[in-house]
Amino acid sequence: MRRRVVPRGLRTRLVVAFVLVSALSALTTAALTFRQARAAILDRAQDSAVHDLRTQVDSLAPDLPASPEDADLRALVLQLDRANGARGWRTAAAFRGGAPVAVAAPAPALPARLRATGGTARGAVAQRFHHDGTPWLAIALPVTRAEEPSRPSGLVVYASFSLASQSRDVDTLVSAARAGVVPVVILSAVPALLAARRVLRPVRRLRSAAEDMAAGALDTRITVVGDDELADLGRTFNTMAATLQTDAATLRSMEAKARRFAADVSHELRTPLAAMTAVTGVLDADAAAGDLRPETAEALELVADETRRLGRMVEDLMEISRFDAGAAALHLDEIDVGELVGKTLGLRHWQDRVAVDVPTGLRARVDPRRVDVVLANLVGNALRHGGPSVPVRVRAGAVGDALVLTVTDEGPGIPENVLPHVFDRFTKGDASRTRSEGSGLGLAIAAENARLHGGTLTAANAPGGGAVFTLTLPRDPA
Questions:
Q1: Using CA atoms, how far apart are residues 271 and 218, in angstroms rounded to an integer?
Q2: Which of 195, 358, 395, 443 is most buried when burial is the number of CB atoms within 10 A of its CB?
Q3: Residues 394-436: tens digit of each pLDDT
């Protein structure tokens, strides 16, 4: 596994960037300073050497050789070597076109380019070179006659000396520059930390405010200071928060009104529905006794079915209203799961159409009425959508501290576009059927009952076909 090399924290990245910029600036400044100082040291040594050599040559002007005689050149070189002082130069002399003549101990050979240009130059020519790893400076000084200063005499004096002392000075500059860069880089971390803290303070406030809003505190605002980009971001955040708070308040008000309306309508419908149910019950008795004509009995059966369906829808709406109002309560009791499943199927005369697989003695502490509602919804859906000839199975078992109930069928399954919304309110598996026995609230109520227990209800399609609903409840909820 590859590890991240780039630091992730914004503060760390700001400090690293600040330190890198400081280090680059310090190194650039040190490099430029070193270059200028090195050039100044070497140029000063060169100018001083040229001046000293010219002074010595001028002091010997009356006795300068006028012809390329070796004896005369040797005498000149000998005098110049004796006058070298602390510089320790090695001198040589030559007439134009001749080889340089030297009398002192062997010195580094003069650079060929210096010898080639020295005889034709009108002024002093200098060249730096290395010999045995040591820097040297060689000078070629054309000599002119006092009586004809503008006309070269053809005599060229050469001098070369070691720049070791100047090289040591340059090395000292390098060490000083290197030593100066390290404290600058270290000290730059202090203003970097201060700058990062100042820059990130509004970001931290913004993050804290965003976390508060995510927790539901929509009245959160941040204090905006300054006119920079971060201040603009803070003002934008405050505007967004105010808009969200207003919209949320509007939505909550509309939702509360809708819940209240549904609850009021459901409550108001119960009384006339009760009367209608009683009347249809009496008429059903007459129809059963043969006191009604066939057409009237058929119409009565249709009215009775619709009345019962409307009654179930009203009960579902009232149950949803209780969940929305937070008024739904659990009445826990320790029950035998097998007995509960048997009662649920028996009350609805489904026991012959559903296969049950529940271990003997499986017990759980649940609300029996609510679990009955969940099972009735799941099994009823499986029987309706799976078809009367398609087997439906109910299985139960303990998985750790949880009770797991599954209801499966071998029907066509749940359409893929419906599966993510199967527990939404008023969702039906077949959208083409505008009227069906269900209200579209059964699975939503089942999911709410599962959550009320602290459990879950999930839906999926089996690999071999058919729908699988899985109810998971804690066996002993706290």
A1: 42
A2: 443
A3: 999 999 899 999 999 988 888 888 888 899 887 765 544 444 4
Output the DSSP codes for 200-212: HHHHHHHHHHHHH
Find out if CATH 3.40.50.300 is the number for domain 10-171.
Answer: no
Determine the pLDDT at residue 10: 63
pLDDT of residue 262: 66
Which one-letter DSSP state was computed for residue 101?
A: B
Name which residue leads in pLDDT, 352 or 90: 352
Q: How far apart are CA 231 and CA 202, in angstroms?
A: 8
Rounded Cα distance between 66 and 64, Å, is 6
CB 103 within 8 A of CB 74: yes
d(C-alpha 77, C-alpha 31), whole Å = 41
> What average pLDDT score do residues 159-180 get?
78
- Is the Cβ–Cβ distance between 268 and 321 less than 8 Å? no
Interior CA angle at 293 toward 286 and 301, to 5°?
A: 60
What phi and psi, each to the nearest 5 degrees, are found at residue 329? -130, 150
CA dihedral 366, 367, 371, 374 (to 10 degrees): -130
Superfamily for the 333-474 domain: Histidine kinase-like ATPase, C-terminal domain (3.30.565.10)
Q: Cα–Cα distance between 379 and 247 in angstroms, integer?
A: 40
Average pLDDT, the chain: 79
Domains 10-171 and 229-325 share a fold: no
| Architecture field, domain 229-325 | Orthogonal Bundle (1.10)
pTM for the structure as a whole: 0.49
Question: For residue 334, what pLDDT is reported?
Answer: 92
Token duo for residue 305: 């079915």
DSSP 445: H
Ramachandran angles phi, psi of 408, nearest 5°? -125, 155
Domain positions in the chain are: 10-171, 229-325, 333-474
pLDDT of residue 80: 78
The C-alpha angle with vertex 57 and arms to 55 and 61, in degrees rounded to 5, equals 115
